[in-house]
């Protein structure tokens, strides 16, 4: 009787673990499909993304050189995959200048508003 209950529990636990792993794989596939149109280096692993590449670069102390090679090879905007998300890197200073300048103006305007409220 007890052995029968234990076998049911083990079966349902294994089914739950398998279902969770399948859901995780579907989520990773969804993220890959969503960002695959952005150029980037080829992924080393479906589940780990570019983590093995980062590990090798960190181990050999040439992370900066690796990022420079990726930027020069795959344009100024490229994607790197983490196990749970996609990181989009953009390294063109001329297109980022207007974004940071407008952010600085908005921040200064908010500081003026907050200083008036607090006084």
UniProtKB/TrEMBL annotation:
<dbReference type="GO" id="GO:0033781">
    <property type="term" value="F:cholesterol 24-hydroxylase activity"/>
</dbReference>
<dbReference type="GO" id="GO:0020037">
    <property type="term" value="F:heme binding"/>
</dbReference>
<dbReference type="GO" id="GO:0006707">
    <property type="term" value="P:cholesterol catabolic process"/>
</dbReference>
<dbReference type="InterPro" id="IPR039983">
    <property type="entry name" value="CYP46A1"/>
</dbReference>
<keyword id="KW-0472">Membrane</keyword>
<dbReference type="GO" id="GO:0005506">
    <property type="term" value="F:iron ion binding"/>
</dbReference>
<feature type="transmembrane region" description="Helical">
    <location>
        <begin position="6"/>
        <end position="27"/>
    </location>
</feature>
<keyword id="KW-0812">Transmembrane</keyword>
<protein>
    <submittedName>
        <fullName>Uncharacterized protein</fullName>
    </submittedName>
</protein>
<keyword id="KW-1133">Transmembrane helix</keyword>
